[in-house]
Design a protein that fits this description.
This protein is of the alpha/beta class and 417 residues long. Helices cover 41% and strands 18% of the residues. The strands form 4 sheets. The chain has an 8-stranded mixed barrel with strand order 5-6-7-11-12-13-14-15, surrounded by 5 helices. Strand 14, helix 12 and strand 15 form a beta-alpha-beta unit. The structure holds 2-phosphoglycolic acid and zinc ion. The site of 2-phosphoglycolic acid has 10 residues, from loops. Zinc ion (ZN) binds next to loops.
Amino acid sequence: MSAIIEDIIARKVFNNRGEETIEVDVITTNGFGRAAAPAGKSRGKAEMVYYPQGGVDQALKKIDELIAPELVGLNADFQEEIDGTLHDVDGSTNFKLIGGNTAFAISLANAEAAANSHGFLLFQFLGGSTANALPYPLGNTISGGQHTRGKTPDIQEFLALPHGADSFLEAATANAQIHRRIADTLRKKDKLFSGGKSDEGAWIANIGDLNALEILATACEEVGNEMDFECGMGIDVAASSLWKGKKKAYVYEREGKKRDAGEQLEFILELIKKYHLVYVEDPFHEEDYESFAEITKKVKECLICGDDLFTTNNERLNQGLKLGAANAIIIKVNQIGTLTDALETIENAKRNAYTLVIAHRSGDTCDWHIAHLAVALKCPIIKTGIVEGARIAKINELIRVEHFLGDRARMAELKLF
Ligand code: PGA
Ligand code: ZN
């Protein structure tokens, strides 16, 4: 079976926010792959530039004029060569000529085309015969921060993690029930609750951080009791959005509070203790490696995860490793551009026993590739929402993978404590 690239076709499509994005088809002699790029709203400063000047239209031109002529004739099996070619054509350190999202869509479509050329599913092709572990779904239930407007929590995401589930389907079921139960509570507490949801499908409500945590805690406990396994909870503080450099403080607007780095540390530690949080993402802003290291030292039973801190960038991870900043890392391939770049970061994180959390973006499409990457690359957690089309595309794909694996399927090893 030949995986020689015969054509690259790119087009403009839309994400769940109705924003323009890029979709790429890679056609080989015997196969086909298609991938579309997502987009973040609370982006890390160190992320790649998504598109060249001129946006998606310019990116399409770059593919036709510069990229396709270089890739046609190459073998899709050699992902490193494909991704290296994208870097060579671009020539910058942040993909500003062709766009990081352009690189992402080509890179993922290529991986898919290679798998398809040999008659494999993507997770089999990338992960081999030992790839049979399903990730635990980390699901957004209540939105705040930059993902909302108006009187909502200051913290960006209130997350459920059903880490006691025996199967992916059970875990996804628990998350859906927690999500539903939270709406019931919000309806009772606030007559004006409209049932509005954010881009990630999490509820938008006129409540503060502590209220949101209480409501989530109750829902996790009730559903956990009914389903007879542990449903943990966590938060994504997305603290870079709260950090005001000039004031040297995290500004919690709704709460009307400012916290300097020391106060922020105390506050987050209190939340971890009071709500038994098993997961905290970006508790400090993206340049404060020291505070990340401090909190990581202080907690024993909680994942401290870097998203904006690392931006899936191996150099930034190395900086974190030197100091002991965080014990978990978000993997968003489009933060860094290509699959090969992400794999370098993933391998480094694994060598250093960081927990891998592969993640969607708030602006996303029905592209399901991260579901396969989670299984192939043995990520014990996937953060991809609970409801909303772009989230369900990934959840349902994992249900299919679990079904396909049958008796061989098991849940990933997730060391929380
Ligand atoms: P983004 O945020 O996709 O809007 O950047 C999600 C996150 O911070 O995890
Ligand atoms: Zn985040």
